[in-house]
Structure formats: C-alpha cells, structure tokens
Amino acid sequence: MNTTLHVGLLVNPLAGLGGALALKGSDGEALRTLVAELPAIERQRALLRTVRALNLLQPRSSCVRFSCGSGGMGESALQQTDFAFEVLGRLGAGLTSASDTRTVTAALRAAGVDLILFAGGDGTARDVYDAIGSSFPVLGIPAGVKMHSGVFAVSPEAAGELLLRLTAGGLVGLQVQEVRDIDEEAFRRGEVRSRFYGEMMVPSEGHYLQHTKIGGREDPELAAADIAAWQAETMLEDTTYLIGPGSTTAAIMAELDVPNTLLGVDVVRNRALLATDANEVALLQVLAEVPGAARMVVTVIGGQGHLFGRGNQQFSPAVIRRVGLDNIVVVAAKSKITRLEGRPLLVDTNDAALDLELCGYRTINTGYNDHILYPVGAGSA
C-alpha cells in the first residue's frame, strides 16, 4: 500500500512582483497597491512558479494530496494540476496580506499536513515562521525578489524534485536552515540590513536546497579593486553596459567615477551614465534606442552562487535575450567561488528554457587580467 504524502500548499500571490519594477521587494501598502495595478498576466509570477514545482510531482499524483489556501493562495495553482486537494476556508476579496499568510499557515498545520510547501520570498518565510515556529518541516519555492534565507529550493523544479524523492521513499534528510529578512526601506536606500529571524526544518538533498546568502561586503576589497580596474580598462567604446547590483560591480562603477546604485541596475556607455536604478522596462527601452552592442555585468551571490534570479530580476528573460548570452560578463572574487565548495553557479530566470541555455562553463573575471572557468547549472536542468 502506498503512503500518501499530505502537503499543505501556500502561495503568496504578490511575491516577486516588485522585482522587474526595481522596487527591491513587494512589502508595504503603497508598493502593494502599485503592484496590484499590473496587468493580470504580470501578476502570475508566484502562481506559475508554483505550477512548475507541482508539475514535477505529476507522475506520482496518486501518492500526494494537498490542502491549500483559497484562490491565489494555493487553490488557483492546484486547479492547473491533477492532484486531489482540499481548500481550507475562504479569504475575503482584495489583496492578500501577511496576516492572511499566517492564518493559512496555521490552518494547514491544524489540518495535519506532513509538510508545508510555500511560494514567496523572505517576507513570506518570516510569516510562515511566525505561524508555526521551528519544529515543523517546510520547503520554499523561490518566488520573491529577495531570498536570503536557507529554506528555499534553488528553483521551482528543485522543490518538485525534493518532494518527488519523498513520495518515492527516498532517504531525504531534514536540516535546520535560517530564516533571514531585511529592512526593505533601508534596502531601497542602498543599505543592507539583514538579520537572523529564526530557523525552520527543511528537507534537504544535495544541490536542491539553496544556501543562506552571505553578504557580498565580505569579499576582499583588494580583489574587488583588481576586478574593477580590469573591467574598466577593457570596456569597449560605443558599447552599452548594464551593471548589475552588488558590491563587486559597485567597485567597477567607482573605478569609472560614475554614480552607482548598489542594489539596482545602472547603464553606462563610454564612461557616462545613461540610466540609474533602471527597471526591466527602462532597460529594454535603452537597448532599443541606443545603437550598437550591449553587455551585461553580473556578480555572484556569496554562499548561494546565483547569477540570475536573486535580487536582480530587472535582468528579465527579455533583457538577457536582448543583450545576448555571449555578452554576459561574470565578475567575482575567488574567495566567493571557493566558498561554493565545487557547487555550480546557479540561474533561475523564471524561464526554464533560458536557464538551460545559460548552463555550461563560463569565464569569470576574478582579478586584474585573472580569470577562471567555472560551471553554471540550473535547478530545472
């Protein structure tokens, strides 16, 4: 007789919607109102990423049943699958809130689920923790703008793979992982104020689970200066450069003597600033209007190893394809790569086909005329 895995599903329907708008998150009433005005198709990020995770479980749908939140908080995603599910209560109309997340989480726990699967970002993880504490297993589907916590899988597909292993009787251990969150208002001012919020138990297996973010400011200053000097010296004339967020890329902007948005995307051409803290729309507009070639400069998130999909969603699939996969410049200190302990760099662009195209080996600028070759992988691969 097969044992049925009872999963509690929670989706934060607002998660990640501030990324492409360069809002650095989707907390706060004013920003939530702005996000709510987006076209319906653009408000489906969390739902679609949840469905991607659930699709990995479809071959064993008879071994899984779900309890979920109503509407966009879980029900809408499960309606696109063949799984049996039960909706716990009905929420009122309008935008969901942190209170709704806590209410649904508590209801799922009371319903006797074996594990809570939630889609969101650090704010969602924090609300789940507030509702159930540290003694109950959870797994996060990465769908937010900022995901510094260690409770998330590296991609939606990786979350699905972990659950698939559970249903197949695989030996999937549980690890205690950190829940971290930052002050979004300080984040928008270029200040990173991340703090430890608590710990939750997470099923873990090999490369499927995301590592807790290590702040980029821990990179050696000399390495950043060497990288910046080489990049500034080798920049091509009449080429548009999209400079991503991070302290390493900030050093490049300082070397160019151009104002920098530490946590945003700036656009430079011939050492002059064309756009600052640009969102996806602004980036596409610059790429369409400014003639000539373009390049994108990105760095690695320490600990996690992500190139795309964590804090730089302005680099959307459309922007990446417009720049071209061969025109992506990766910069990182060797110490940051060493901390990965052989794990590949990761991409999670919200486009599974693009993720696969980005896989392979890439050259990384690690100092002045100093480069290494390192693999890039995707949780969907």
What brief labels describe this structure?
381 residues, 9-stranded mixed beta sheet, globular, alpha/beta, 5-stranded parallel beta sheet
SSE layout:
Layout: E1 5-11, H1 29-36, H2 45-55, E2 64-68, H3 75-78, E3 84-87, H4 98-110, E4 115-120, H5 122-132, E5 138-142, H6 156-167, E6 173-182, H7 184-188, E7 194-204, H8 221-234, E8 240-243, H9 247-256, E9 266-269, E10 272-275, H10 280-289, E11 294-299, E12 306-308, H11 317-323, E13 328-331, H12 334-338, E14 345-347, H13 352-358, E15 360-367, E16 370-378
Parallel strand pairs: 1-2, 1-4, 2-3, 4-5, 8-11, 11-13, 12-14, 13-15, 14-16
Antiparallel strand pairs: 6-7, 8-9, 9-10, 15-16
Helix pairs in contact: 2-6, 4-5, 8-9, 10-11
- Count of helical stretches: 13
Number of strands: 16
CATH class of the largest domain reads Alpha Beta
Q: Which segments are poorly predicted (pLDDT under 50) over 5 or more consecutive residues?
A: none
Integer count of domains = 2
Q: β content, as a range?
A: 15-25%
Main sheet: strand order: 10-9-8-11-13-15-16-14-12
Structural class: alpha/beta
Helical content, roughly? 25-40%
Average pLDDT value?
Answer: 84
Distance between the termini: 32 Å
User: How many strands, which pairing sense, and closed or not: the largest β-sheet?
Assistant: 9 strands, mixed
CATH topology of the largest domain: Rossmann fold
In words, what does this structure look like?
- With 381 residues, the protein is of the alpha/beta class.
- It is built from 13 helices and 16 strands.
- It has helices at residues 29-36, 45-55, 75-78, 98-110, 122-132, 156-167, 184-188, 221-234, 247-256, 280-289, 317-323, 334-338, 352-358; strands at 5-11, 64-68, 84-87, 115-120, 138-142, 173-182, 194-204, 240-243, 266-269, 272-275, 294-299, 306-308, 328-331, 345-347, 360-367, 370-378.
- The strands form three sheets. A nine-stranded mixed β-sheet has the order 10-9-8-11-13-15-16-14-12, sandwiched between helices. It has a five-stranded parallel β-sheet with strand order 3-2-1-4-5, with helices on both faces.
- Strand 9 (266-269) and strand 10 (272-275) form a beta hairpin.
- It is globular and about 60 Å long.
